[in-house]
C-alpha cells in the first residue's frame, strides 16, 4: 500500500515518497506556499518572482501584478503602458503620465480624463482624473480558470480551489493512521527493529529502516566502514588514512592526526611546527630536528669536547644541554677512544 498523496510515487526499494511538483513532505501532503517562495518537486527551488508577483508552485513561472512585466516581473511598465503584463495602452496629454496599474492619468497643471484641459483659473498642481473603466483596468488576478465577478471584481473559484485569487487547492483530507516511530504494519501491531538513535524513519508498512547519515545495516546499528560516509555510506572519503587521520562518517570531512594538515591530511606540518592542526611551535635548540607529530627533539651528533676542539654534543628534551666529561654523540655515551684520541 502506497501512502503517498497528491500523485506522489512510492519507491520500490524503501517505500519513500517522491513528490510531484508543488508538494513536499514524507507523504507529499505539504503544498508549496507562495509566501515561502518555493516551487517544484519537494518544494526545493526558490521562486524568482519580484514586485509582489504570484509564483506558480509547480514550475516557478511568474504571474505579474498590474504595472510590471518580464520573466520575473522585474520591469516597470514603460511610459504609455499599464495593467497586467503592461499590455494596455494609455494616453495622457501635455507630457503627463498614466498610472502603471490602473491607467489613470496623473495630471500636473491640467485636468480632464486625459489631462487635455488646463487647470481652471486660480488653481494649479495635481488632479487625479476620473477612473478609466476598461476591462484591462478592472481585471482581477484570478487563477485556476476562476471567473471574475463583473461588479465586485471578486474571484469565483471552481470546485477544488479557494482563496482570494483561487490560488489555493482544496485538499480532500482522508483519515490516515500514521504509526508511531517504533511501530509498523496493520494497526501498527509490529515493532520496528531500527536503532532509534541512528534511524531517520521506520517504514510504517514494511518496517525497513532508513538510516541517518553515517550509519548502515538492516537496523542502522553499524557505523560507516572506514573510507566511507554519508547516507547509506555510499560516498567515499578522500582522506589519507595512512597518516592515521580519520574521516567523519557523516560529512566526510578529514580529521587530521597530529603532525598533518590539508584537506586530505596528506601534508606534514611545516618546519618548526607540530601537533594537532600544526598549531604547536617547536622549541628545539642547536640545530636539532623537531618531530612533526609530537614535537620531540632529535639532537645532532657532535664531537667530544676537548682542548683542541670546541665542538659539543647536545642532550636534553630541547637539545640545549651539552655533553661533558668524556661523553659524545646524541646519547652522551662514554667514549672508548684511547691514547689521547
UniProtKB/TrEMBL annotation:
Coiled coil: none annotated. PROSITE patterns: EGF_1, EGF_2, EGF_3. The keyword Disulfide bond applies. The keyword Repeat applies. Keywords: Disulfide bond, EGF-like domain, Repeat, Signal. It comes from the Eukaryota. Disulfide bonds join 19-28, 157-166. Residues 1-29, 132-167 form the EGF-like domain. GO terms for molecular function: scavenger receptor activity. This is EGF-like domain-containing protein. The lineage of its organism: Eukaryota, Metazoa, Ecdysozoa, Nematoda, Chromadorea.
Amino acid at each position: 500500500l502506497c501512502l503517498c498523496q497528491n500523485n506522489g510515487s512510492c519507491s520500490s526499494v524503501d517505500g519513500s515518497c517522491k513528490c510531484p511538483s508543488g508538494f513536499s513532505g514524507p507523504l507529499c501532503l505539504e503544498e508549496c506556499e507562495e509566501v515561502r517562495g518555493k516551487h517544484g518537486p519537494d518544494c526545493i527551488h526558490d521562486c524568482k518572482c519580484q514586485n509582489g508577483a504570484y509564483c506558480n508552485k509547480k514550475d516557478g513561472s511568474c504571474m505579474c501584478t498590474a504595472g510590471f512585466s518580464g520573466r520575473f516581473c522585474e520591469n516597470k511598465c514603460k511610459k504609455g503602458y499599464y495593467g497586467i503584463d503592461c499590455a494596455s495602452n494609455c494616453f495622457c496629454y501635455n507630457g503627463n503620465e498614466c498610472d502603471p496599474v490602473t491607467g489613470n492619468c496623473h495630471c500636473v497643471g491640467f485636468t480632464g480624463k486625459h489631462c487635455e484641459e488646463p487647470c481652471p483659473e486660480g488653481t494649479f498642481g495635481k488632479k487625479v482624473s476620473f477612473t478609466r473603466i476598461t476591462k484591462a483596468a478592472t481585471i482581477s488576478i484570478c487563477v485556476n480558470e476562476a471567473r471574475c465577478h463583473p461588479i465586485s471584481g471578486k474571484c469565483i473559484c471552481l470546485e477544488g480551489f479557494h482563496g482570494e485569487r483561487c490560488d489555493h487547492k482544496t485538499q480532500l483530507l482522508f483519515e490516515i493512521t500514521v504509526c508511531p516511530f517504533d511501530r509498523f504494519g496493520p494497526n501498527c501491531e509490529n515493532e520496528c527493529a531500527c536503532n532509534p538513535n541512528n534511524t531517520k524513519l521506520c517504514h510504517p508498512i514494511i518496517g525497513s529502516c532508513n538510516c541517518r547519515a553515517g550509519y548502515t545495516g538492516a537496523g542502522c546499528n553499524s557505523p560507516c566502514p572506514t573510507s566511507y560516509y554519508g547516507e547509506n555510506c555510499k560516498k567515499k572519503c578522500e582522506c589519507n588514512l595512512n597518516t592515521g587521520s580519520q574521516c567523519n562518517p557523516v560529512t566526510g570531512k578529514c580529521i587530521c592526526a597530529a603532525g598533518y594538515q590539508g584537506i586530505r591530511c596528506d601534508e606534514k606540518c611545516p618546519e618548526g611546527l607540530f601537533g594537532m592542526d600544526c598549531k604547536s611551535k617547536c622549541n628545539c635548540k642547536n640545530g636539532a630536528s623537531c618531530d612533526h607529530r609530537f614535537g620531540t627533539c632529535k639532537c645532532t651528533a657532535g664531537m667530544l669536547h676537548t682542548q683542541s676542539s670546541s665542538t659539543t654534543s647536545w642532550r636534553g628534551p630541547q637539545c640545549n644541554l651539552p655533553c661533558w666529561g668524556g661523553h659524545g654523540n646524541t646519547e652522551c655515551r662514554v667514549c672508548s677512544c684511547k691514547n689521547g684520541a
